[in-house]
Amino acid sequence: MNRFLVEPSPLKRIASYFIDLILTIAIGFVLFATLGQSVLADSLGASEASKNASDFAVSSGLAYYPDEGEGPLVYEYEAIDKDGKKGYEAYLDHVWYYYTEFLNVAKNPNEKVVGRKNGDGKDFVSEDYYRFFFEECLGFAGDSANSNPYFVYAKEGENILHTSKPVLNAEYKAKVEANDEDALKLLLKYFFNADGVNQTGLYFDAIRDMKGTDYSEVSVQTYYQNEALRYSWATWGAEVICLAPIAIILFLVIPLCLKDGQSLGKLLFGLEVVDVKGFRMSVVQKIFRPVIVTVFHLLALLPNVGLGLAIYFIGSIVSFLMMALGKRKMNIHERITSTIVVDKKYSIIFDGPHEKSLYMEEHQIDEYGNPLVRVSESEGQPTVNLTKEED
What we know:
By secondary structure, the protein is mainly α. Among the domains are: 50-227, no CATH class; 353-390, no CATH class. Helices cover 51% and strands 8% of the residues. It has helices spanning 10-43, 46-59, 87-102, 126-137, 170-177, 181-191, 202-211, 223-257, 264-268, 283-298, 305-325, 332-337, 353-363, and strands spanning 63-64, 73-74, 151-152, 154-156, 159-161, 167-168, 271-275, 339-343, 373-375, 382-384. α2 (46-59) runs antiparallel to α8 (223-257) and α8 runs antiparallel to α10 (283-298).
């Protein structure tokens, strides 16, 4: 055991680390809240991208701007409201408009909308948008609506109206006219089902299509997703600008400037970083150690927030376990740089081997700080010299 170096308790080390971490987060997020969101993110295009995406959603007929707040919001209707209006009818109006009017580039010359194509690569004509709605959304098989439990084609006499909104089949029409509560709830859920975590229904399918997030199906809309991504990049850029410099100052600049390579947390708790042999750190160690620590913390700011935080938390847990349970009490970056943290008040730290050798000779101790053992000439028994005066 090296008696020159006294290691601090794991709790003391953790406390010193959290001082640095809390300072980084607190200062960084104050900057982001006061400067990042209002100035930096907007200068990078966040507000413009958010407005563009929101305007596109509202123009699709699937969302609306509320009287108050930023919005936009999705419509939420009741099965039947106090005025006797039925929610399923409102949802049918929205999805019908979206698929047959909004996406129909012949009727809606909105350059932000991407027109659909047939399987042979040809652009949809107006009739194709109606066919898509009936067959792909409602599940009709050509002129047969048998696969849909609620709707059928509208007819004029015996002629099917392929470009008119679908109507309820005879069974459900009778139930709706009788205000059958269960039937109305089932119809509402057919369009809007927000139970639990998953949101399903024709209305939500249309929203996913509009947002370009329905990757498993045939969504080709890209505008909303591109603007949402631009907003995310702008917000992330503002966060990095606010947080990264603080992390660099606290974990890199300050340890480089202080003689003993301490961070503010280590300085507050009286801890010092030294070479694993007990000497003061070399120039390489003093630079390399804080660089590794800083890069590790900056990983939490990766654009993929989930990945960045996962790397950070896993690395932190592994380092803590290595420090608390490992025989050498060293975490990852200490093993890489051959450095350790000691309690400065109770440790004896040397500038180099020569200074240590002189100290050992003066105090009659070995290289680990243990008293030398000599054989007494008078009694022939080993005795321990604890002080120089006892020689």
